[in-house]
Fold this sequence. Notes:
Elements: H1 10-24, H2 35-42, H3 46-52, H4 56-80, H5 85-102, H6 105-115, H7 121-146, H8 156-177, H9 182-199
Helix pairs in contact: 1-2, 1-4, 4-5, 4-7, 5-7, 5-8, 5-9, 7-8, 8-9
Amino acid sequence: MSTAPARLPTEERQAEIVTAALELAKETSPGLITTSDIAAGVGVSQGALFKHFPTKDAIWLAAMGWVRGQLLARLEKAADQAASPMDALAGMFKAHVGFVASHPGVPRFIFHELQRAADSPVKQEVRKLLQAYRKLLRRQLDAAVARGQVSPKVDLEAAATLFVGVVQGLVMQSMLSGNAAAIKGQADAVFAIYRRGIEELA
């Protein structure tokens, strides 16, 4: 009886390959992950893998595209469902933290790529993500100032930078501890400090 994996539509198989690569990144440095490892994670041969992606870099580029789409969708949904701009910022913070907790291989993959000297297509995708993220943040911060929820004295560009930096700090600590889920336990308290800072600037 054949044990060969079922043939899937191209998009579904590509999604499986991306998922397998990010799953491997949870435990292994992305630089050490081989196409053989990824193929094994999916349950296909390397030849089958290369029918969908010509190189390992192409897999990582697709993975970053997936991350950008998924994370931005979660952030936008959290903002759209909020009753006020400040609630939107809190929801976006939780959404980002929740995404990292659910996909701990993602930050390992991104940090690895950012350490590479070359300006790779993956880095360009990361920049696109950050640019879109900052636009979302600025929209909510501007609205929060207009609603009187954020002090008009706040440097909003700095506030957006700090928001992203706080999340990245939590992510780094979770990576060092090896417990991605722990990030959720600190999220509310950390955001509360951030919130007080932008509300009460003298």
